[in-house]
Design brief:
Layout lengths: L22 H13 L3 H14 L4 H13 L3 H15 L5 H13 L2 H14 L6 H19 L5 H19 L3 H14 L4 H13 L3 H14 L4 H13 L3 H12 L6 H13 L3 H10 L9 H12 L4 H14 L14
Helix pairs in contact: 1-2, 2-3, 3-4, 4-5, 5-6, 6-7, 8-9, 9-10, 10-11, 10-12, 11-12, 12-13, 12-14, 14-15, 14-16, 15-16, 16-17
Length: 338
């Protein structure tokens, strides 16, 4: 028997309200997928959100971030430029996001221009520190490009010293690396990383206090130096001085360098100070093809993986690392460290 809720005797009308999702529904799905690093799904849902709610610039900004994460920097910037054209006075963060994308593309002049524009329009904005650091890094890049007066012979000599020091440091042969680095500092005083590598070797060769004093002096002169922040975070961590170490760790959490070598340095440092989840996330973003020659890439990545609940990934990395760098096997597996 059919029961009708229509008391007028007319045709039965089902009391159902059709569900038509709006942009917010798809935006939330996209954000959840993004947080799970399911970028294809995130892009799909966010594009749908933009279609349904084209007047919501935050949806477009989030979609641009997905493109940035997948390396599609040009598309990300096209989206952000559209947001600026329509909502520029309200969404000044776009200037920083655009500058970051240009930096990844190697278009440093454009990156610097938009970073400065962001600082001009939002001097106390959420990305203030990141934008200032980006401008600082780009200034250094420009100085290095302009200061190209070394003879080829000198460049070859520097390369030889650098490779020798790198060889010993990767194998934790700190005392063997020290005299090479001392000579590098004497011959090439403008080669900044040599003095910071020298401090690392001093520290692990047993001269901890001297290493810290040197690094603190350099940090005072250059408070935004990535080398100093990394070294001091590790030095103080090893000495059990959690508060001093944590100050530098917090700064490193907000640093996203441009070059793969610098990215590796931050990821390895975060692993060494027990910030495994943050380190693992950084390692997953690295371009492996550019870092296969680094024993430290396999060592610290495998340790970070092991301590974030990825033992099979850790073992795979360690085995590949030992195949490429037999000396790695002498340093003990990731399960023995941390």
């Amino acid at each position: 028997m059919h029961t009708s809720n229509n008391n007028t005797g007319g045709a039965v009308v089902d009391n159902i309200i059709p569900f038509t999702p709006e942009g917010e529904f798809y935006f939330n799905k996209g954000v959840r997928a993004f947080r799970k690093r399911e970028f294809e799904k995130a892009s799909k849902w966010l594009r749908r959100a933009v279609e349904l709610s084209p007047k919501q610039p935050v949806y477009q900004c989030q979609l641009s971030v997905v493109h940035t994460e997948t390396g599609d920097y040009h598309t990300a910037n096209q989206i952000l430029m559209n947001v600026l054209a329509d909502f520029g006075h309200e969404y000044v963060d776009c200037y920083y996001l655009i500058s970051n994308n240009y930096a990844h593309l190697g278009l440093f002049q454009d990156a610097k221009k938009y970073a400065k524009e962001y600082l001009n329009k939002a001097p106390e904005g959420d990305f203030k520190e990141e934008a200032e650091q980006l401008v600082s890094v780009l200034d250094i890049e420009e100085e290095e490009d302009e200061d190209d007066d070394w003879a080829f012979e000198e460049e070859d000599e520097l390369m030889m010293h650098q490779e020798s020091a790198f060889y010993y440091m990767e194998r934790q042969q700190w005392k063997e690396a020290l005299p090479i680095l001392e000579e590098m500092i004497r011959l090439f005083p403008n080669f900044v990383s040599a003095k910071h590598d020298y401090a690392v070797c001093l520290f692990f060769a047993g001269e901890e206090q001297e290493a810290i004093e040197l690094e603190e002096q350099w940090h005072e002169r250059e408070p935004f130096s990535l080398h100093s922040m990394c070294n001091l975070a590790v030095f103080y961590f090893h000495q059990g001085k959690a508060q001093q170490s944590q100050g530098h760790i917090q700064k490193l959490r907000n640093v996203y360098p441009i070059g793969e070598q610098q990215k590796l340095r931050v990821a390895a440092t975060l692993t060494q100070v027990g910030e495994y989840a943050a380190a693992y996330d950084r390692f997953c973003r690295l371009e492996k093809g550019k870092l296969k020659g680094h024993l430290s890439y396999y060592k610290w990545f495998s340790i970070a993986a092991y301590h974030t609940g990825e033992p099979s990934k850790a073992l795979s990395l360690w085995e590949e690392g030992c195949t490429r760098h037999p000396n790695l096997a002498e340093q003990g597996g990731p399960w023995q460290q941390g």
